Amino acid sequence: MNPHRPEVGEKFRRFRDRLAAERSERRGVPVRPEASVHGGPAGTDARADLTSPPQRNAEHTGRRGGRRGGRRGGGEELRVPEAEFTSYYGRPILKAPVWKWDIAAYLFTGGLAAGSSLLAAGGQLTARPALRRAGRVTALAAVSASAVFLVRDLGRPARFHHMLRVAKPTSPMSVGTWILTAYGPAAGVAAIAEAAGWLPRHGLLGLAGRALPSVGHAAGLLAAGTAPALATYTGVLLADTAVPSWHEAYPELPVIFAGSALASGAGVGLLAAPPAQAGPARRMAVAGAALELYGAHRVETRLGLLSEPYRLGRPGQLLRAGRLLTTAGVAGALLGRRSRLVGALSGVALLAASVVTRFGIFYGGVASARDPRYTVVPQRERVEARRTEGGTST
Q1: Residue 85 buriedness (CB in 10 A; 0-12 / 13-18 / 19+)
Q2: Which residues have C-beta within 8 Å of that of residue 55, sequence separation ≥ 6?
Q3: Rounded to the nearest 5°, which phi and psi values hold at 85?
Q4: How far apart (Å, rounded) are the C-alpha atoms in residues 285 and 319?
Q5: What's the CA gap between 55 and 22, in Å, rounded?
Q6: Which residues are CB-neighbours of 191 under 8 A, at least 6 positions away?
Q7: Maximum CA pair distance of the chain?
Q8: Which tens digits make up the pLDDT trace of 152-209?
């Protein structure tokens, strides 16, 4: 007989006993000593040999099931903590927006056009020709610059035309295209009407000169009616993307952009109109600053981890500068009511605040897309919250 065969048989029996003990522990049945000592040598406690393998198996099972938490189907309690976040070589999970600085500039010029049209309508309805003229001319210049920035991003002008083939109310891009299509001609006609006084009084041009003020009046009101949608649709457009800090800020972005549009329009009025006619511009400045500061504060505090991109780095610097400039512009508009110089400086501060705020929001979203932590960690938190809610409801 081979002297090694009893040793092999002994190992096999121990292996069989380990399997039996593991099954018993999984089912919650205590292990009987006699079931653990088959063929064991006298004076040895084979149960000591059987305790460590099930423990190692439980740890291994917990490690595999640690993501789910709680208990697995066999009833084992998992004690392994949740794994720390890691990414594949630290690479982004989302593709960062391909938009460049021209889209951030488009966000500003679109808001400036909307705010200027509202300013012009206020000057038109309150018989303040300086406000009306400044607002209409600025609106046309701003919407023209917006078209340039948009076509630059699209690559070819024909792409803008192709978007007019359909109207999709569920697409912010499609809705924005139609808003621009309705707003642009109205703002253009209103601005052209300001040239009526330069036309001759007789002949065909004289007839056009006499008709332009009435046409410009209607066009100015139409542009002002479209202006709120123009000012806010870009905020909805950003929030409709998968970029974390834009998407999560969907309630605040339209508010920020509306306030920024009002503040920039007020800046135009404070720059162009004498203090005696700048009353509507000062009121617009107060309303716009309140909306802009409230929305910016919310995105920097409400979003938890996703607020970080708006507080750190270049976006944080831009948004802090925007708050300071907005506050200074409003203070100058209210305290320097009789000074044309103070009013002009306040207007410059409000315009600069609108620029840096739009760029800060833009670069904050880009930063959140480039760091995978801002994508994965909030997703895990939402999954955990839903799991907790499901557990409490049952």
Answers
A1: exposed
A2: none
A3: -70, 130
A4: 18
A5: 9
A6: 136, 137, 139, 140
A7: 131
A8: 877 666 666 666 777 777 777 778 788 888 999 999 999 998 887 776 676 676 666 6
